[in-house]
Amino acid sequence: ELKVEQNPLFLSMQEGKNYTIYCNYSTTSDRLYWYRQDPGKSLESLFVLLSNGAVKQEGRLMASLDTKARLSTLHITAAVHDLSATYFCAVDHNTDKLIFGTGTRLQVFP
Amino acid sequence: ETGVTQSPTHLIKTRGQQVTLRCSSQSGHNTVSWYQQALGQGPQFIFQYYREEENGRGNFPPRFSGLQFPNYSSELNVNALELDDSALYLCASSSKRRGSGNTIYFGEGSWLTVV
Lengths: 110, 115
What we know:
The complex is a heterodimer. By secondary structure, chain A is mostly beta strands. Chain A contains no helices and eleven strands. Chain A has strands spanning 4-7, 10-14, 19-25, 31-37, 43-49, 55-58, 61-66, 71-76, 85-92, 99-100, 104-109. The radius of gyration of chain A is 13 Å and the shape is globular. Chain A starts with a strand and ends with a strand. By secondary structure, chain B is mainly β. Chain B has strands spanning 5-7, 10-13, 19-24, 31-37, 44-50, 53-57, 64-68, 74-78, 87-94, 105-106, 110-114. In chain B, strands 2, 4, 5, 6, 9, 10 and 11 form a seven-stranded mixed β-sheet that branches. Classes of the chains: A mainly beta, B mainly beta. The interface between A and B is medium-sized, with 20 and 25 residues.
């Protein structure tokens, strides 16, 4: 059974600081997704990672994938308040049936 | 704006009643998946429809059922509602056509409260 774990579950960071969210999954997966969710809202697609060593960046967020370690990271650079949200990673076997992680609630304060 | 629309956005039902939620997929997408997200948790896969047929199901009882129509829109039906069915129901749109890209887009969701 494919399982996805994220850590930390909750992250409180000061503006301007850097931090990394980790996503581990239990079995081989074809694709790794990162989503952002604001309170009371739906999921916003951030990144799709397809192959080992893939790295994608958008603004202050950078995602990477290590398929051998079954690990993806979401790195936050110089955090700003607007990044406060819950971040989910998800995986699938090229089926579009996503298995989500537990989510990381990020709070950025001044 | 993902092009995936869901209705209704909010609704309140009584335990034991039935509910139908609707989803219009993004143009060109032939696959619709439904997810349940309870408060404070990650989304859980309910089932997927591809070319009007159910194409995989998560760990949900038979009282959760669905349909996909020729225009690829979809419905999620839940019978005999229970209090634990209170959640955000998300519809996801994607395409299995080669070269269509890999992003899966979510609608804004339907908030269901069962009292």
